[in-house]
Each structure stands twice: as C-alpha cells, then as structure tokens.
User: Fold this.
Amino acid sequence: MRLILAALLVTLGLSFHASAEEAMSLTPQETYDLVQKQGDQMLFVDVRDPIEIMFIGFTDAVDKNIPFKLADRSTFLADKGRFAMKTNPDFAAEVEEALKDKGLSKDALIVTMCRSGSSRGKPSADYLLERGFTNVKYIDHGFQGSGAKEGKKAGMRIVNGWQNDGLPWSMKLNPEKIYQP
Assistant:
C-alpha cells in the first residue's frame, strides 16, 4: 500500500512540476490593465516578425518588438503556402537586455504576444521559462485573434484578440520599439 501511495505521489508531483513549467495566459484586456497599472514593473513583448506587424498592425502599449520566429525568405514551404519560420537565436538574450534597460531582472513579469497566441505567444513564453525567466505569460488569442467559424466572414480573424477587443492599435509602427537587426 505504501509503495502504491509513494508511486502515486511521485506521479502527481511530476505532473504538477510539468504543468508549473508551462506559461499561463492572460486576456488582452488583462494585459492592457497590467500595462496601465504597473507597466514600469513588467516587460510587454510583441514576438511577431516586424514584416508581419507592418501588414497587420501594432500597439504602442508594448515595450519592444523582439521576434521569437523570423521569416526565412530563402525557404518557401509550398505545401503550406508560406515561408519557413526560424527561431531567433538571440531571442532570450534580447529579452534579458530589454529587462535590463527597464531596470528589471529575469524574475519580473514578461508578457508575450503574437498574432493568435498559440503559434508563437505561448511557445515563446515557454521558451523563456525554460531559460530561467521565472514569471512569463502570454496573451491568449494574441494581437489579431481567431478566425470566425461560420458566416460570410468565416476564416477572417474577427473574433477576440487585441484588435477585436477594442484596445489601442494602429498601422503606424514606432521606430523606437520595432525590431531592427
């Protein structure tokens, strides 16, 4: 009986540990409220490729655009109809530098945002957690949100996300915040 109980506790402990390593999500509104209340105590990072931002829009509420994945214009994926995306090898170092610029440590709150929240927002947050950053979250549904499931606008990103929640954004890029390698 003790052996079974010990095995159960070990199993639960490992499961708990694994889920504790995953980044948690925030809504766009929760993130905006945090930026308004404690923006100097956190780092808000747009992790999209700057070319993507140029065509979709930007919010000046972010501290910095540091791409997690960059489009590799030398590798076109014909089956997916897009260029390959490669991990920015300097991502973690650039995030750490942005924290230092604000006088913050790797324990400060970092919030990442991509286009939809799932393909780069959460992975970038998990990536930072794996590299010793301790308080990283991501915006659920990202900047542009999810596609409509039905109707005339099916597939269009008009559901949830930063833009669709009515939070401040524009098509104008802030040259002091946008990634320029």
About this structure: The chain has one domain: 23-164. Residues 2-20 form the longest helix (19 residues). Strands lie at 24-26, 42-46, 64-65, 69-77, 82-87, 109-113, 136-139, 146-147, 157-159.
